[in-house]
Write a structure and sequence with these properties.
The complex is a heterodimer.
Chain A (H helix, E strand, L loop, with lengths): L1 H18 L6 E4 L2 E3 L3 E3 L6 E3 L2 E4 L5 H10 L42 H10 L7 H8 L12 H11 L28 E2 L24 E2 L4 E3 L5 H11 L10 E2 L3 E3 L2
Parallel strand pairs in A: 6-9
Antiparallel strand pairs in A: 1-5, 2-4, 3-8, 5-10
Chain B lengths: L1 H20 L18 E4 L4 E3 L8 E6 L6 H14 L3 H5 L2 E6 L7 H10 L7 E5 L5 H7 L4 E3 L5 E4 L2 E4 L5 E5 L8 H11 L2
Parallel strand pairs in B: 3-4, 4-5
Antiparallel strand pairs in B: 1-2, 1-5, 3-8, 6-7, 8-9
Amino acid sequence: MRHALVALLIALPLAGLAAGAVSGRYAGVPGGMFKSALRYEDAKAGVRIKTFALMRKPVTNAEFQAFLKRHPEWRRDRVSSVFAEPRYLQHWASADTLGPAALPDRPVVWVSWFAADAYCRSLDARLPTWIEWEYAAAADETRRDARQDPAWRERILSWYARSSKDALPRVGMQAPNVYGVQDLHGLVWEWTDDASSLMVAADNRNQGDPDKGKFCGAGALSMDDRENYAVLMRVAMLSSLEGRDATANMGFRCARSAP
Amino acid sequence: MNHVVRGIAASFLLCVATLANATQPAPALPGDSVYQLSLPLTDSQGQTRDWRTLRGKPRLMSMFYTSCQYICPLIVESGKAIERQLSPAQQQRLGIVLISMDPARDNPAALKKVMDRRKLDASRWTLATPPADDVRAVASVLSIRYRQLADGGFNHSSALILIDADGRILARTEKIGSQPDPDFVAAVRKAVGG
């Protein structure tokens, strides 16, 4: 009985997502309470995640190329330098052709936050928030929260140990997690909408600290689960980037709120 | 998408204005101008204009929110402290723009309250709020980090950014308060001219 009720509660918002014209490109992620590996001083008990939809796979070169046909202002030869650094899409053969270093089914990388944001907006979608990303990425093939399993952590860390000089595999090679989402680990880093909210630092508000004015407001952010290197490395990466930056391993996928 | 539509709308308005005034079209924006971002801002008078209308004189920019008790009043104080280092003529050539990161609460009335309470001269100071969807983008072009807290407040980096008449970032300081950073003041003086 209880199971049936839970199943119903989960199914309802997902039915709503499906009705909201979310295509097969997205998987529904049912909401719930979530305790981040980050310590949010303002939300120690955890954060309530609302049901949302997340792209099953990261955006590919072919998909990004199709976007540039519709929105040529984001081509590397036309984009404003305030939105993308010079290395933006540098691995493509030209401004509108992919070439051997950017095969169609590989995840698009060397993209700035602004370009990723524009891509998602063009689909009436958005970038996922950090907490949504972390929530979806806490799952493995059978569990919504596999983070305490040493084998799960080991598997993710073995990817981080691989050379970033190796060619990227194509998207969708890995088994879908319990929500039907693939490649959250083991392929590329991914932009989040609020990448610039990740200010991981010691408390800057101490008296006499020369950086006292740098950050304002209660609620400093620090790592709660120091064993979770997978998340720590993501956060360190995102918190070091500006919106116009692009890197060899930074891609993205889009999300949608439940209607 | 919204940006594009707004961009087209803004260009159209610009064209109409240009035809009406029979003046030369404005020169193209530099690629590294923050005004490459189309951003409708609603000010303390309730007027909504794209922030590209701020083009034309150097500005000090920062982000804040009106219910902030600690650092945000200091950001206003910092702007005033820099103004005090300038001659009256120089003050007239510098605009100060504080952009809210709290669209849910910072309506024109809330902004006006700060203008009045802090005695800010509306000919030089602009307090304005972007649409909720655009806060992250404007923060990103200004390299300001923020996170909304569970209680509705914000954790954010505080900086004053000096931009030239075309929106290019000339200097930046994170030294907030009544004792301005001398290097930053020198950059402001240079931008507004003797």
